[in-house]
Write a structure and sequence with these properties.
about 170 residues, mainly alpha, 2 helices, rod-shaped
Length: about 170
């Protein structure tokens, strides 16, 4: 075996530097993919929270509608009791109109409460959809950065090979 020369050391340094650069590219791609995976998981969790919130809003809306229906029935009963105490016939004439108006206003309130709950829940559902889209985008970006790291590693290896080959052949 021959003696080591500065050419050999230069060649080894070039190969080692290229290997380290290739390894760094791969590790950078892996790290970027892991970060994107974490961000995607956060988006998926946010989507679940938005879904749960939408369901809670709908439950709250149904409870408010039921509560308003009970309040409306109580209002009508109180009105009729008050009118009956004064000797008014409650199922005809003005007394009947008053009860019908109270029932109509109660129904409008119930519809408004239900509609407000649907709108709010819809906004949360859309937020959940957007979070899922963001999660997929993060995952795609992570894959792309990982592949870019692999391509960078391949490029480094080819660059080193192109630099080393002429020197290698001269030995």
């Amino acid at each position: 075996m021959g003696q080591l020369t500065s050419g050999h050391i230069d060649l080894a340094g070039t190969i080692l530097g290229g290997a380290m650069e290739a390894g760094g590219s791969v590790m950078g791609g892996i790290h970027a993919r892991e970060q994107a995976g974490y961000r995607a998981a956060v988006h998926r969790n946010n989507a679940l929270i938005a879904d749960d919130t939408a369901a809670a809003v709908m439950r709250r809306g149904r409870a408010q509608v039921q509560e308003r229906a009970i309040e409306g029935a109580q209002t009508i009963a109180n009105q009729r009791a008050g009118l009956a105490a004064r000797g008014v016939v409650v199922d005809q004439g003005t007394a009947d109109v008053i009860a019908a108006d109270a029932a109509r206003y109660s129904k409008i309130d119930q519809i408004t409460l239900a509609d407000n709950a649907r709108r709010e829940a819809f906004a949360y559902k859309m937020q959940g959809i957007n979070e899922r889209i963001e999660a997929k985008a993060e995952e795609k970006e992570g894959r792309q950065k990982y592949l870019a790291g692999l391509v960078g590693a391949g490029s480094s290896i080819l660059n080193v090979a192109g630099t080393v080959a002429p020197k290698w052949l001269s030995f």
